[in-house]
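[job 0417] fold request received: Anti-sigma regulatory factor (Ser/Thr protein kinase)
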Amino acid sequence: MRTTTFLGFVELLGRTSSVTLARAYVRGLLMAAGHRDTDDVELLAGELVANAVNHSNSGRRTSGTIKLRVSAEDRNVRVEVTDEGSAMPIPPIPAQVDPLQESGRGLWLVRELSSAWGWTQSAAGRTVWFEMASPQRTGSPDSNGDDATER
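[job 0417] inference complete; emitting structure tokens
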């Protein structure tokens, strides 16, 4: 049986500043749940929020919003970013990206770093989600021992 644990939900404005807020929010949720290595999850959440700001109605409308939901299921963390939709379909993901380019890498990174990802479209907007193996938990048996009690 799979157990899903809801970690948090936040609604952000469709503004560039929301990328930093989203990353900090995800880091805070995961750290509070005992996870230590949150960098990749933070990065991908930030990329999805940036895409929503730059490519959806959430970023085009004055009062546009983006919804960010984080949950954990078994040994995976799932992040969902919902925007207010767009007339554009999800863009194709390049096979390779130019490391010096400052844009166009978001979904490529999601594909490369996540264990699973996808998107759904509804009348309310588009949700892009990804799952990653759960970042190492503080004191877990597979941690590097920093949190272990010496015997």
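[job 0417] notes: Confidence is low (pLDDT under 50) at residues 140-151. Residues 39-55 form the longest helix (17 residues).
[job 0417] exit 0
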